[in-house]
Design brief:
Shape: elongated
Number of helices: 0
Number of strands: 13
């Protein structure tokens, strides 16, 4: 699975951005997809997750402001970010968790894949 994140940029506080993560390889609809972010000098943190049946969870810090969604037809995940604050400034990464599967008499264990990251900068 290869992931390509896009949509980051510079925005003023209170503004909005929409991130996209397009996957190739594997069966996108089988994957649990997530967005993570890492601010300077901080640990990477989980922002939001969407399961194959579109159940969503969010970090407390983004609830009510961010919305994660997926388009299984287009193999793409989105993160709509509204009411952005400077504390949302970070590099945002998309992640795919692929379940294990059997193919051709072989079992392939679960896989964990990362995109390259897209920078989001919110100015005050």
């Amino acid at each position: 699975v290869q992931l390509q994140a896009s949509g980051g940029g510079l925005v003023q506080a209170g503004g909005s951005l929409r991130l996209s993560c397009t996957a190739s390889g594997g069966i996108f609809s089988d994957n649990t997809m997530s967005w993570y972010r890492q601010a300077p000098d901080k640990e990477r943190e989980l922002v939001a997750t969407i399961t194959p049946d579109s159940f969503t969870t969010y970090a407390d810090s983004v609830k009510g402001r961010f919305t994660i969604s997926r388009d299984n037809t287009g193999d793409t995940m989105y993160l709509q970010m509204n009411s952005l604050t400077p504390e949302d400034t970070a590099v945002y990464y998309c992640n795919a968790e692929r379940p294990g599967f059997d193919y051709g008499g072989h079992y392939y264990p679960p896989g964990d894949y990362w995109g390259q990251g897209t920078q989001v900068t919110v100015s005050s």
